[in-house]
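Bit of a strange request maybe. I'm writing a small parser for structure token strings and I need a real example to test against, not something I typed by hand. Could someone generate the tokens for this chain?
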Amino acid sequence: MNPICIVDDQPLICSTVANILEDEGYEAIAFADAESFWQRLDSMEPALVMLDIWLPGTDGLQLLQRLHERFPELPVIMMSGHAGIEAAVAAIKFGAADFMEKPLHLEVLLDKVKSALNLHPARLDAGLPPDTRLARKPSEMAMISGAVELVASAEPQRTLKEYLVLNGVGLLSGRKTGISLSPLGVNEGIIFQTLDGQTIRGHITSLRNFMKPAETKSFSANSTTLDNGRHQVRTVEHLMAVFSMFGITNVLVRVGNEVPNIDGSAKDFCELISQAGIIEQPAGTQVAVIRQKIGMGAEEKQEKHLYVEPFDGFEIVMRVDYPPPIGEQVLTFNPAQGSFAAEIAPARSFNTFENIDMAQKLGKVGSGYLNSHIIMHDGKVINTVLRFADEFVRHKILDMIGDLSLLGYPLRGRIIANMTSHGHNHVLVERLYQALQHRQFEGDNYLETFADRREFVESIRPLAPPRRSKT
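Reply from user aminoacidic:
Good idea to test on real output. This should exercise your parser:
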């Protein structure tokens, strides 16, 4: 998608709004004055402009009129902390899509951005859309026959040796919470059970909006939430990543409505399960083998994109590029060559102080957020010492592993991710799931053409299983 441009002479407003939009999956570019923004339009067409009325030099209303002449369909949201109703009326008359008063409020800001973009949809030739509006190109939505195939693996099913309990604080709620983990029998899967006995599968089909059409999907960029239509369990991704890397296929997770996050990483889950132990079960597993490249987005450095391609094993190549103190970070993780427990699990969630402060004031997150994040302000980490110089990209890989596990099968393929978040991960897993369903349907029809089912079985040669992580 084309970027959202913020034009405001207050650096804090620019950085805060840009960070909020980027957290939601949008690309955001900030400008301190009308002149620098106007010059950039020679090489860029925005998807949306957020424009302050009071600017040095050319003011916002003058710029709005020029924009409307040059891009009649471009949505513009005007912002001001001092203008009255007359300025708001004038802005709408000059073609503004909406008007916002400062101080800006997170929920209002995101609602207005979403509404403006929905009224002026992204062009079909744009790159990867933001999480809050995941309309995709027809070529990306088309099902590729044979793109993913299930094959038998030599890896057995696994469960826990004993009952486990872990207490902590909810990442979003800020309240004390906990989970208990219990062994399950073969073919039971990952099951979440709420305190009143409701069960929710740890599977892509349990995402809250899984059944919605693609063009109406709206994902949270901050966590993964499972839902059975009556109850939900939030922030499951770090625990699911540990289950995936430890090869745990059957386990019952009893929980309230949120999995605790001790410090925003998966380190405590790893240590707890390692101490308790894992047992192998008398049943085999399957692996989802990528046969053809599948994904979304323009494969350019400045565009968000996410793909999985054929690869003999499992590997994630992740790139992020955010303002200081993060910058550009690129990391390749292959569990057959490195240790998930040592290299990925300890990486913590991260956010800016401004985003967290605004979200708390709006009641979106609780006090647990402050203690379970790397917090950044004014280009510096302000509340902790980094565990890795590139801890930020490592945490993105942790989230990716947890979200990929929702497919229900380990992957044999290479993931290539650029500036993605949970919403993008969910869409990729949904596409992989649909490809498997499509493959199964084709396989059932193909099977009917065989006079002897043994001929069909003998025609499939399972591939060697991928190496397990050095946990």
